[in-house]
Amino acid sequence: MTAAVTARTSRAARLLAVNVAACVLLLIQYLLGMVVNVYVVLPGRHPGAGARGYFTGAVSGLAWVISDGPGWAATHAAFGLALALAALASIALARRQDGRLALALSVLGALAIVGAGFNGASFLDYGHAFSSMIMAGLWALALACYLASVILAARRLGGRSLFRRGYRRTRRA
User: Fold this and answer.
1) pTM for the full model?
2) What is the H or E stretch that residue 82 is in?
3) Which end of the chain is more exposed for a tag (fewer CB within 10 A), N or C?
4) Domain extent at residue 151
5) 4 lies in a domain?
6) Is 153 contained in some domain?
């Protein structure tokens, strides 16, 4: 193999690994969110609660929940930050790929994660159920983007036959 082909394959493999990690983190985040939703009662008064300034309230609320909030909620928020880092890594790796589709999926997935995070902070600070609903919808969009990215990266690595094989139908006599 030439150096260019090896470098391209290596980048595709790294992008595949980051996108698989993002999918796993998203699934863990979903489960943590369900635990928080069902078993955690957030106090009505905490730093950031009912803040007039959204961004200052979001930062205060996030800092509070990670450092002093209920354990499950703190873990959920920390995984959200890890997801944001994985999203940035996916964008950085996708920029080095040849196709625009990988970059578009990574950017859309990252925007969905950031949007879900902002709605999570909004739910934490203001307690509106629609923020939780938007967060869940954006989670689904992010998962779809990263699953599509996994398929795209696997195809770039030569896994085309994995996605084109079908079951052969046999005729019964």
Assistant:
1) 0.81
2) helix 71-95
3) C
4) 9-157
5) no
6) yes
